[in-house]
Amino acid sequence: MIAVISIWGTLVVNLILTVAGYTWYLRHVSKSDPQLPKNPPFVSILVPAHNEGIVIVKTVLSLLSFDYPEDRYEIIVINDNSSDNSAELLNGLQEQFGYHRLKVINTDKTNGGKGKSNALNIGLESAKGSLISIYDADNTPEHGALRILVAELLSNDKLAAVIGKFRTRNKNATLLTRFINIETLSFQWMAQAGRQQLFHLCTIPGTNYVIRRSVLEKVGKWDVKALAEDTEISFRVYQMGYQIKFQPRAVTWEQEPQTLDVWFHQRTRWVKGNIYVIIKNAKLLFQKKGRPIRFDLLYFLTIYFLLMTSLVLSDSVFVLSVAGIVHSDLQGFSNYLWLFAVLMFVISTFVTITTERGELTFSNLLLIIFMYLVYSQMWLAVAAYGMVGYIREQVFHKQAKWYKTKRYK
């Protein structure tokens, strides 16, 4: 019964977030882009890059193509202890477009290769801008992304950061990337919109955002121990009384894992990173300064602890009951609930993809049904493995290792 209540409670919360996000979308879909002032602030774009030779040229070219005034932003690539041809490729881009527009910081094993947070802190030391923007090395943001983010940030002095939306640029590569594409639309951008609508709360993603330099310095920059540096810094920003806003008109396209092993390692890192953030901030549940992030803390605690345990229990009882080893008095009741849960998942997820051109297809509807049966179970395996890995690292006092996500041509 506890497992049923936990699973259904999470489904209901996600449904509420989806409905709230969709209503927020309907109210904002016809609004025009925010406008920059005549003299926009100088922006430093930081791009942490470790062995990103396959994708870095395309990324830098897209960043150089922003419609933001050319003399009001710089690009700083932190070529972080790379052993591939990244340095040569970046040097060629510098010679072509100018060293004033593209700066490259080449680190080695003495000061680099220690994860994204460390690379960003190194890049920040060389940045000139009063605003800092972050893009991952596999991103190709749309032409107006930076302009929209900055204009939105300048519209409200209480905003510390503005985040954009990211889409899957290799969504048709494999079945896995098609899963990720729908996941990104349904459980990332729509959930962000829902949390903003209901709680004025959203989380900085790892890419496609701008943040005030003064706020970064006030919160102490990025936590080098955090694998989920985006969630961790979001919590500290909210604790200081600032706000973060979601602006889905600012879009970037990013590569996603195309094979299970790459996906598994990436998501395991996310799980470990979020568990670190939960444990670091758990005490704030009972403190006044934790009020702005209380919903997220409770949500993460539910997802990574209560829900995961409940799903393992539920799946185990289901398998054992089918095998005739155990019998549950709730079996019939649970079967009806399970069918209704699938229906609710499919409908809510399908509604969210209607917001994107080209996604409203019958094949995506079938894919969503398949996601509930397969992809959700894959996530359960990742969550369990990530939690065990985190506990093992803490017991043996090991430093969490940053896993480099594989890129594709």
Automatic annotation (TrEMBL):
Keywords: Glycosyltransferase, Membrane, Transferase, Transmembrane, Transmembrane helix
Transmembrane segments: 6-26, 297-323, 335-353, 365-388
InterPro entries: Nucleotide-diphossugar_trans
Molecular function via GO: glycosyltransferase activity
Gene3D superfamilies: Spore Coat Polysaccharide Biosynthesis Protein SpsA, Chain A
Pfam families: Glyco_tranf_2_3
Family to which the UniProt record says this protein belongs: Belongs to the glycosyltransferase 2 family.
PANTHER family assigned to the protein according to its UniProt record, in alphabetical order: POLY-BETA-1,6-N-ACETYL-D-GLUCOSAMINE SYNTHASE
Name of the protein: Glycosyltransferase family 2 protein
